[in-house]
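Bumping with the actual sequence this time:
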Amino acid sequence: MQRTRFWNVTLAGGLAGLAGAYLSIEAASTFERGLTAGRGFTALAIMIFGAWNPIGALGAALFFGLANGLASQLQADEVIDIPQQFINMLPYILTIVLLAIVSGRVKPPAAVGKPYEKE
């Protein structure tokens, strides 16, 4: 049990580091204040919306990725005549609405919020 938890924490930390490296090197080409632009909040929402299940999290990530892509496409094509800031809010508004709907039905794992202590 402890070995599995140790490796899961190690793997999660490594993946988080790779994600941060990707954001600062590839996606934004620079490191600056506000670089993540709420992506951490969206990642937590994906985990909750996916019910702490890898397949559910994949589906939730695809949904939020599509919402982000839709916002980018609406902004680029100027399909609707509203300010850009409102279009950029679309993925976050969908995140909050879906969390409000799903959060009461999803039960987190028992170890959430408990610090890892090596025995």
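The tokens above came from a reply further down the thread. The chain has five helices and no strands.
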